[in-house]
Amino acid sequence: MTRLMSGIFASLAVAAGVYGYASFQGSSALPSNPLIGAAHAQEAEVDTSTIIEMVQGAEGAPVTLIEYASYTCPHCANFHQGAYKQLKEDYIDTGKVKFIYREVYFDRYGLWASMIARCGGPEKFFGISDLIYKGQSDWARAGGATEIVDALRKIGLLAGLEEEQLEACLQDGAKAQTLVNWYQENATEHGIESTPSFILNGKKISNQSYADFKALIDAELDG
């Protein structure tokens, strides 16, 4: 389980300097760190209601499960390649569970991955997320920042996004800042300290085997 680092955003902000995105000057050009300035964002008014919740399942499902996960977290990748697929088949697709996915940002790479996953809107979000998690061991180890963002771009293109669309999403500094604030609000509300973490009908639970997830969900359904 990956543990959150206290003050990570403030530390990155101090180390990185001025917030913003650099202009793209070619296919390998890289946006500057979108976590820059996160410390200042806590003092600024940012409308996080503009961030779309990524949801699967029936709106009126009797059980709501929120996952907090990072695209750079290996345990999250394992969950999405294993227990999540069974959860989706048995509970989400059958209308028993409303599943909400919320991103956690450890670093700029996870935030870039999130911006690409969200670039195609809710219709493509979970499909792109699946590709990002499936290829995590490759893109997360692609090299430096330029190589990593290029690898993430390729995932977006594979998912059917257009090059110009991807560039616009990666350069959206206001969206990056809003996502960081949105994550901080959610993590504070639910006391999120590690990933993946889950909120099952309002109660925080840790990552566990599918059998244990199933028992907890069934107890909620029978309650």
Note down, in words, how this protein is organized:
This protein is of the alpha+beta class and 223 residues long. The protein has a single domain, classed as Glutaredoxin (3-Layer(aba) Sandwich), CATH 3.40.30.10. It is built from 11 helices and 7 strands. A 5-stranded mixed sheet has the order 2-4-3-6-7, sandwiched between helices. Strands 1-5 form a two-stranded antiparallel ribbon. Helix 5 crosses helix 6 and helix 5 (108-117) packs parallel to helix 8 (145-158). The two termini are 29 Å apart. Residues 5-43 have low confidence and may be disordered. Residues 24-222 form the Thioredoxin domain.
| Largest sheet, strands/sense/barrel | 5 strands, mixed
The fold-level CATH name is Glutaredoxin
Number of helices: 11
User: What's the pLDDT, averaged over the residues?
Assistant: 83
Which H/E pattern describes the elements?
Answer: EHHEEHHEHHHHHHEEEH
Distance linking N and C termini: 29 Å
Shape: globular
CATH architecture: 3-Layer(aba) Sandwich
Domain Thioredoxin: 24-222
Family: Belongs to the thioredoxin family. DsbA subfamily.
Function: May be required for disulfide bond formation in some proteins.
Protein name: Thiol-disulfide oxidoreductase D
